[in-house]
Design brief:
Number of strands: 18
Largest sheet: 8 strands, mixed
Shape: globular
Helix content: 25-40%
Strand order of the largest sheet: 6-7-5-12-13-14-11-15
Distance between the termini: 16 Å
Strand content: 15-25%
CATH architecture of the largest domain: 3-Layer(bba) Sandwich
Order of helices and strands: EHEEHHEEHEHEEHEEEEEEHEEEHHE
CATH superfamily of the largest domain: FAD/NAD(P)-binding domain
Radius of gyration: 21 Å
């Protein structure tokens, strides 16, 4: 029998961490009528979070090549939930579902065939995944005119999407402010700073600090990623595009107004230092082979960030006692799976259990 705390309205809830998960959950809980306080070690722009440094692609089929089936199912659930979550915001956020394009140069044909076979295998495991469309040169030019003549073949993964994280985070903040959520910036806190349930203390503490929670959840580690943001007026891509490459898989996520987010590297390290010359040169060289118009692009940002990851690279919830709930381990799939983790967390807090967590095989642990 579950003896964990269940919310009654109105409860007093402290949310630690104002990254993506912290903002989504704080907003929903405030809308339910609870008194919500958000405490973050950094400022309102999300400076310490992984959320601003991301491409925000929502690509379950593409990610099925590198992650577990339950994460893919979480991505499918979240892909349907994002439009609902965004529709509830008063500030518009760029969102599209034009699919994902996968391309490769002729010398990488064998790697492309292996990837296509992997997609086929994963669709046998999860029959609700869409069927990739094989593109010849003519069809590729129809789907993505900007790449006409540059590639002989490709794959279109239908229905996949993306959003603009740099629009989403301030849009969520605006909602929190409008609802009167108490926002405490530059206020690092530990779980030991609270005694939830006691007089003068919150009823519940929700720990969404990502890497900041390592003091309380020692298994959390960082996996480094490097992301470049460029402005390329000569390039027009209509959907996220992935380039198969022997050393790394490059992705290009086009945002509005010829802004592109590019990344590839994933390094098993929690080093937050600047990107290396080598990785930057490789990334930009591969980018140029996709479209020569990127040669005249202006580099706006070159960012590194570490994504919070648990030992199995899968997300989890964990109760610490009866009134502290931790949400962590979203790894490189933060935007793809956060609506699923949001829905699971709300079910756990409201009912003490989550049918969605069972369906998606997300563990709810007890320390």
């Amino acid at each position: 029998m579950n003896t964990m705390f269940a919310l009654t309205s109105p409860s007093h809830i402290v949310v630690l961490g104002a990254g993506l998960m912290g903002r989504l959950l704080a907003l929903s809980l405030a809308r339910q009528g609870h008194r919500v306080q958000v405490m973050d070690a950094h400022g309102p722009q999300g400076e310490g979070a992984a959320a601003p440094v991301a491409a925000a692609m929502l690509a379950p089929l593409a990610e099925s090549a590198v992650t577990e089936p339950n994460v893919v199912r979480m991505g499918q659930h979240s892909l349907e939930r994002w439009p609902q979550l965004l529709h509830s915001l008063r500030t518009p956020v760029y969102f599209q579902r034009n699919g994902t394009l996968v391309v490769w140069h002729r010398q990488d044909q064998a790697d492309a065939q292996r990837l296509a076979a992997l997609f086929h295998k994963n669709r046998q495991i999860n029959t609700t995944l869409p069927q990739p469309e094989n593109l010849n040169a003519q069809r590729l030019a129809e789907v993505e005119p900007a790449l006409q003549g540059r590639f002989q073949s490709g794959l279109l993964l239908p229905d996949e999407g993306q959003l603009d994280n740099r629009q989403l985070l301030p849009a969520l903040l605006k909602e929190l402010e409008a609802l009167g959520v108490e926002l405490h910036w530059h206020s690092p806190k530990e779980l030991s700073d609270f005694a939830p349930g006691q007089s003068g203390q919150p009823d519940l503490v929700l720990d969404c600090r990502g890497l900041g929670a390592r003091t309380a959840w020692t298994q959390v580690r960082g996996v480094r990623g490097e992301v470049i943001r460029v402005h390329a007026p000569e390039v027009t891509l209509q959907r996220p595009t992935r380039l198969i490459h022997p050393r790394y898989s490059l992705y290009i996520a086009p945002k509005e107004n010829h802004l592109f987010v590019i990344g590839a590297t994933e390094i098993e390290s929690d080093d937050m230092g600047p990107a290396s010359v080598r990785s930057t040169m490789e990334l930009l060289s591969a980018l140029y082979t996709v479209h020569s118009g990127f040669a005249e692009a202006r580099i706006l940002e070159l960012n590194t960030q570490c994504r919070p990851t648990l030992p199995d690279n899968l997300p989890a919830l964990r109760w610490v006692g009866e009134r502290v709930l931790q949400v962590n381990g979203l790894y490189r799939h933060g935007y793809m799976i956060s609506p699923s983790m949001h829905d699971i967390t709300l079910q756990v807090l409201t009912d003490g259990h989550s049918p969605l967590a069972q369906a998606l095989q997300v563990p709810v642990l007890h320390s």
